[in-house]
Amino acid sequence: MDRDDQTDQAAPQDVVSIIRSHVDFSPSKPAEPYGDWRSLPELPTSWELNPDWDNDLEKIRMNVPQNDIRYPYSDKNGYLEIHYRLSREEGITSLRNGVFVQGYLMTRLGPVCRLQFSTQRAGRKIVWTRTRRLTPGTIVAISTAADNFETICKPAVIADRSIRDGLDKKPPTIQILWSDISDAVIDPNQELVMIEARRGFFESVRHTLVGLQHVAQIKTPFDKYLVQGSQADENPQYVLDNPKMDISGLLHHLPDDSIERERLLGPYRNYDILSGIPANIGPHTSLDNSQLQAVHRILTKELAMVQGPPGTGKTFTSVQALRSLVNTLTAGMRKDTEEVIIVAAETNHAVDQILTHLLKLDYNVLRLGGRSKDEEIKKYNMFNLRRRAPILAHNKDFQNGEAARKKVIRDFGDMIESVFPADELLDPEVLHEYGIITNEQLGSLTNTSWDYQPPSGRPFGIMSEWLHESMVDLSQRRYEDPAFDDEEIMDDDEIDTSDFQLDLDDPAVDDEGDSFVLKGTWIDISRKWGGANPQHYNEESLLLKREMNRRDLFDVPEKYRGAMYECWQRQLLEKHHQGLCNLLANYTRKYKSLKVNGWKRDVACIKSMGIHIIGCTTTGLSKYRGLLAALKAKTILVEEAAQSREANIAAALFPSLQQLILVGDHQQLDPYTDVPGLAGSYHNITVSMFERLVAYLRLPFTMLNGQRRMITAIREVLNPFYPSLGDHPIVRDPLYRPAIPGMPVSHYLFQHTWPESMDTDLLSRFNAQEAEMVVRFAIYLMRNGTQAHQITILTFYRGQKKKIHKTIAKLLRPLYAQAKIGVQTVDSYQGEENDIILLSLVRSNKPNMPGVAGFVEDMSRGVVSISRARRGLYIFGNITNLETASPESRFMWGNVRQVFERQGRYFPGQSGLPIRCKNHGAINHIMDADTLAGNYGGCWQVCEGHFEECGHPCDRLCHPMSHSQLVCKKPCERKLHCGHRCSNDCGDECICEKLCPSFMGRMPQPEVDQMQGHRPLGNGSSHKQRRTNGMRDTVQRNKWVAYNSAQDDARARLQRQTSPRLIDTALPVSVHETLREEFRSVNISPMGGRVVADGVITNGNNIPPGTNNPAIRGKPDFGSTTAHRNRESAAPTPKASGDTDERSTGTPTPNARQIPRGRRSPIVTPRTAVRAFPPRYDQTPTHSNLLDLSHLDGVLDDTRLERNRSSPEDLYDVSPPRERNAHTSHQAAFNLPPSRVSSSYDNVSDASSEIARTVADWEVASDNEERDGVQLPIVTVKETKKCFDDDDDGDDKDLIIF
């Protein structure tokens, strides 16, 4: 194509004519099955959705052509047809009962039909707020229930998805746009069947199809590249016309002196770009040499392609080039200073990202499309631009079009009213007017007296008298939507509600966009009354035909009258159907006229606001093609070009376009298709335009080769795929890429043989042991100082993502309640990065079975997964399995394994994950999640440090944090102001061992009696606070009067369970995290307080492999922890997320509680709502005196409740006194056999005996509670004298503990 031809095509064209050519576009000739592709309509036809498979199979196959990407195309028509037919096939190839029309909403987007439907065939309850069903733009196929797609198939598109007053109704409703308005269904009693396309999104295809048909009608400067594969590397016409450009924006390092700065920038403000980038620009720019070459290619080439490997700054390079283009426009160096540059990308996130960079440079941008998730970018959409722009009055054409639209609405409503009277029956005069009944039949009705009085609630009139008992209320016949108990299982991907909202950029939505729902004039189509037809007579029934010919309708037997009435109703609708469809078609034309006028106004808004950059997705390039073409853009830049399908970009070749810029990397993610069969080597729909031109046709391009993301060792993992990729100096600077705390290596390949599983709900793979290992490792990194936001867990499968989320909730949330670790699939993480990446490969077949890889073998996904980390990359998987799965998988993961092995970061067989103690320098290798669970600082040595505040030794296992962040758990040695000693831990709040009034600030006893259910609040300041604040005054100490014990207990429990500081420094644990039990003897003081002795901790048996430290092996720890805060549990406290029973995995978490196997007897726990108050000495014990057992909170929260009958250090709960020989009463109270009761308890200590005698004559009650699956029955002790068994057998088995 020569330059003269291009100039002719670029001649000025009226804005309105350009817009109208798009809005009013229709194929040049009628569509024929399997005919010319240019004649096909925008939406699918019935013969495409429901073809004749028996006779047309060969034609159907020919309709899906081969796409040979190895060679150029024979001609432009063939090139466009191949991509058109493949895109159309993808949009329509993957397409529920009781569907009825309710009416039409006459909107400014066209006539919208509202359907009521049933979810019966779904088989489960659909939660509409958590499903992608019936997304706007999804294609549906509709048929009558009687035909059931045998011969009738009516395509339509979901127009609106409103939950409120729509999908939340019973039954739900949805609104559609008919593909062909002549297919419109009007009869509200016609039962329909609707099929939804669960895969695919036709909205993203339909506009591309029309765009390709537009391109078929014009010549473009890019035909020689796209069709013929030309190696020419020409300049765009606008550059040849004027090669001067402002490239001063490429200079970033400028002197402070303004004169010197201007002297440096001056030569570059009007620079001849065809002479190349000057060499002396290097010291003043942040761009490396490859980026400067890429910028020059973007500024000077007609078809400019730039490949950007991971971390090389593709977006930054694009922004710098755009900066020069925009500066050139705003400096007035182009003829048309109102010219716009279009920036597109495959994803909304990428569009928002590049526009954010441009906004920081103070450029005027416009975001087309309503799917942006960035709240700042949303301010720059078309809807808001119209509001900011100077008021542009609607012209006369718009006002005339709006008046014509409203007249059509009135005419349509009047016709519907005549066919379907709202609350009345059909008018005999109307039936006669349309020739449905004869003159004689009309006379038989009109000559009858009107003395008939219908039953209450029924309509008046002669037709009501004629029908009489044959009249039925149709509104009562509609079904109710089925109620299912089970919810439909959907994927775990986050649902973005913006996907279901109205597109605010449509020019017809201007006045109603705030509501995000369609608005318009509602025309209801419903029937209140009808005729009974129990025999199902129809027009073909001979008996009914005979009765319908009677001259006097009152001679018709009553059993036929209902059927006759229904026949008249159908005939009347048939008479009006074509007229109704014509009105709907006329309304569509009026809507299009409004759209033309709206886009014309938008063009004026864009120019008046000085917009120079318009951003949209590659789908938006076709959707808003009319508007963009009217703006006469000369340049389009496509980010993520290698992830966009070729058809989407080819459809955006406007007549005015002179330059196409493609920036991407074909070695990363490919375009996505919903039809896997089209992705193979025959159709190649997932081969992008970028990849075809660069990798197959070898057209000129520039490759960026300096990465600024990964440290060198991680970058080397990419070298088998990018041999020329090098490093920017910044990645070798420890100041910007510090080492990973707690790790001796920055990257590692952890090999295991744990088998994978299948998530049957998601039909996706997961590996439970691998998920736990990854989460445990993330916890370890956080304990050693890494922030949660610096860690991202990547996986290839949604099933594994779901499993990791559950594991995080189970293991990490109880420790770090506010921590948010990112968990993403690889496909959703292209373009992202983080300091540390934990990669879960999932796939691992059983031993001696063939290797399996699935799409983990895909090199483009693999490259993305290993190139996201800045400082740390840790891969977990069965690499041996992947290497033997397939040649593709061997190439991908075999190369990765070789690099890791060469670097000493992988060892054949099962390679333990190395961790390093920053205190001792010891390196240990972790083989599984259980081993990692008990490690805080990298080793298992006992800390030899001391607390600065109190001087106590630490005695914990090695920990990475300083002692100032920990709480000393030694017994408090301070003497309080009351003269007594503290009975609490050193680092906790002081509590007087005598609970004396002087310390507690207790009120007189009568006031205590009025406060049953409340306990005194002790002096609650910590030792550190008391040193600075002094003792509290009397008012402060008396705050216990208004004290809510239940709320404080819940707060304290939650704080203890969620605080990383406390959880991380729990009792010393073994490598398997089996927490040792803590036991304390407790006495009741004369004042009713608790006296808690020093804690005793049992010896743990799980010693880490290879540990020889005598401080750990076989050495019990005495005196570690004493009583917790004085608080009560007035009501059962909700179970914290960390309180889970993990007997199945053998890896208990901190705070885990456990009932010993085989026990069913009630036990005292912090949740049994047992409270105590010391009785007044002049009172008889009452039912309100309840025993305080809240001191057991700490024991049961921080240890596992497992009793060992052979251990003298067993935990003994406070036990109520019982009757002598109460063995039988125990059986009755607990409804348990004697063996179950007696076998549960052994060895009663003197401490418990003393407690029980002290509280004798009290009444004790425990509420029902289900604890870890064990139902604890109500136990009421009416009269108690003695606590222990008196049968002299010495076993004390009759003691009841609860």
Automatic annotation (TrEMBL):
The keyword Glycoprotein does not apply. One of its GO terms (biological process) is regulatory ncRNA-mediated heterochromatin formation. Residues 287-412, 611-672 form the DNA2/NAM7 helicase helicase domain. Residues 98-198 form the ZNFX1 domain. GO terms for molecular function: helicase activity. Residues 1097-1110 have a biased composition (Low complexity). Keywords: ATP-binding, Helicase, Hydrolase, Nucleotide-binding. SUPFAM superfamilies: P-loop containing nucleoside triphosphate hydrolases (SSF52540). Residues 687-878 form the DNA2/NAM7 helicase-like C-terminal domain. Residues 1197-1208 have a biased composition (Basic and acidic residues). InterPro entries: DNA2/NAM7-like (IPR045055), DNA2/NAM7-like_C (IPR041679), DNA2/NAM7_AAA_11 (IPR041677), P-loop_NTPase (IPR027417), SF1_C_Upf1 (IPR047187), ZNFX1 (IPR057373). Residues 1096-1241 are annotated as: Disordered. It holds the Pfam family AAA_11. It comes from the Eukaryota. One of its GO terms (cellular component) is nuclear RNA-directed RNA polymerase complex. This is RNA helicase.
